[in-house]
Design goal:
By secondary structure, this protein is mostly helical. Helix 2 crosses helix 7. It has one domain (about 5-190): Hypothetical protein af1432 (Orthogonal Bundle). It has helices spanning about 5-15, 35-50, 60-70, 75, 90-105, 110-125, 125-145, 150-155, 160-175, 175-190, and strands spanning about 25, 35. A hairpin with a 6-residue loop joins strand 1 and strand 2.
Length: about 190
Amino acid sequence: MSNPRLEQQLAFLIEADALKAVERQSRIVKGRRRENSAEHSWHLALFALVLGPERPDIDVSRVVAMLLLHDLVEIDAGDNPMHGAFDADGVAEAEDAAAKRLFGLLPGDLADRFEGLWREFEAAETPDARFARALDRFQPLLLNTLTDGGTWTENDVSEAQVHARYGPVIEKGSPDWWAHARALVARHFASSDR
């Protein structure tokens, strides 16, 4: 018996498995290998479940959904590390095309909902999206402080660059996280003699 809706849902879920093969720059805390984008998305969702209840203005389930969906476009567009050189407009076009293709695998109602959540995350105009985006910056910052500078050391990133690249996004989502992150960053750079 054919079930077209289920077939579309499964096609999307099977395609989403490819996110496990997209390598990121951040290293995991133990083992020093690089994380993949699926691990990153899972870890961010866990961050939201743990840190979200502290914020009554946040809908944790929406944030978790955004975080599970936000990097799926990397299946087609790849990961573009924030410390590398890349064409931002070209990346945005590639990610937009990827969102349309990937979410287009789903039945219409789910396609619209998931693409809408992805676009909301990208725009970062709602409290939920700003919170999700802050987590997306906070997690790799934390990983870098726990892996001897990780991508910062590999890319010769200065403390001022860390503040400029991470600070505004984290602070918009949570000033408390940014205060904590600044202390971690200062400790890292003081101990690394950079």
